[in-house]
Amino acid sequence: MKSLKNARIKIALLLSVSVIIIWILTYIALIVTLLGGEALGVKVPLYLVIFPLFAGYVPFPFKESYWLIFIFSVITISGILIFRDFFKFLSNPGKEERFGRYSELFAVLISFTLFSYFVSIIFTQQSNPFGNPTSNEPANVVLLSLMHAPVWEEIVYRSLILGVPLYLISFRGKLPWYRAFVGGKFTINKSSVTLLIISAFFFGSAHLFAWEPAKFPSVFIAGIILGYVFLRYGIYASITMHFLVDFSGSYSLLNGQFWFLASILLTIFMLFWFVLGIPYYFVYLHEIFFKKRNVERIEEDMDNLVLGYRIICPYCGFDQHRYLGENKFQCLRCGSVFYYKK
């Protein structure tokens, strides 16, 4: 069992490094796009990107930069938080597991999307069964769409359709109110699973207006994964994952040998994620849908029994926990896993 866990950690490390490399390249692509004016057909000044307060003092057409500045700011902040998780995972992969799990889920998303794509080719006998609503659009319109969706769609489908209702139904008084909007710390219970499926269905259905029906399964599963990431880790994690999936497609639209090589590297990594993502289908299917939701009373390990004072969850302050072994506890309120050592 321990060797299996060590193997999973090593695979997660490989996945994490590949994901962070593509994140860096994709973020550079975003900056190149903004500074090149590709998204609006106008050049967005560097000072406007760095100091968005100046946006109020610039004339039209730079007024249109407001939304791009918001997108850029949200993606940048989300990226900083993801890098924080990445370095925590590198420093202690056995305990700081968040980015490792994030990378596994990202591999599952890419793997299932490619699997669905290949299956659709076989059944539809079409070279592009998902369709491409932007195939006839100029590059600047496509790039604007690619940078717009990760932020706007996460706000709508994860915060408003998933987070807010779930908080009101099951977590009001158990988690801080802002968790309804920013996610993170939610446990996976029956209400979580139900709303996860509903939000993913709406997410997938919304894409049917522009894409072919064959795309629905992959988008639906993407909605499940992004929703799960939102619930467990927060909206910053779902935004960065969505951004990676969408905006990495910008490589082929940017000129230069660098982006040609970046596209090749992305293709290699996608094959890597495709193969390694398959085993995790079953791991996370069990975690999200089939794991028992009732909290069982677990016998406390006498070697780790704390006498005379309580163990307090560092995330929500609750004092009732499930003991997981090896000085690891899971809070029965927010579901966070933390370590306590006497």
Give short descriptive properties of this protein.
342 residues, mainly alpha, 2 domains, 3-stranded antiparallel beta sheet, 10 helices, 62% helix, globular
Q: Categorize the overall geometry.
A: globular
End-to-end distance: 26 Å
User: What is the percentage of strand-forming residues?
Assistant: under 5%
Structural class estimated from helices and strands: mainly alpha
Report mean pLDDT, rounded to a whole number: 81
Q: Enumerate the strands of the largest sheet in spatial order, edge to edge or round the barrel.
A: 1-2-3
List the uncertain runs.
42-63, 293-309
The DSSP helix count reads 10
Helix amount: 55-70%
Give a quick account of the main beta sheet: strands, pairing sense, barrel closure.
3 strands, antiparallel
Q: What's the β-strand tally?
A: 3
Question: For the CA atoms, what is the radius of gyration?
Answer: 21 Å
Element string (H = helix, E = strand): HHHHHHHHHHEEE
In total, the number of domains comes to: 2
Description:
The chain is mostly helical. The chain has two domains: 2-290, no CATH class; 302-339, no CATH class. It has ten helices and three strands; from the N terminus they run ααααααααααβββ. The protein has helices spanning 2-36, 46-50, 65-91, 98-124, 139-171, 179-182, 190-206, 216-232, 235-247, 257-290; strands at residues 321-325, 328-331, 337-339. The protein has a three-stranded antiparallel sheet with strand order 1-2-3, with no helix packed on it. A hairpin with a 5-residue loop joins strand 2 (328-331) and strand 3 (337-339). Helix 4 (98-124) packs antiparallel against helix 8 (216-232), helix 5 packs across helix 8 (216-232) and helix 7 packs across helix 8 (216-232). The longest helix is centred in the first third of the chain and has 35 residues, at 2-36. The two termini are 26 Å apart. The model is unreliable at 42-63 and 293-309 (pLDDT under 50).
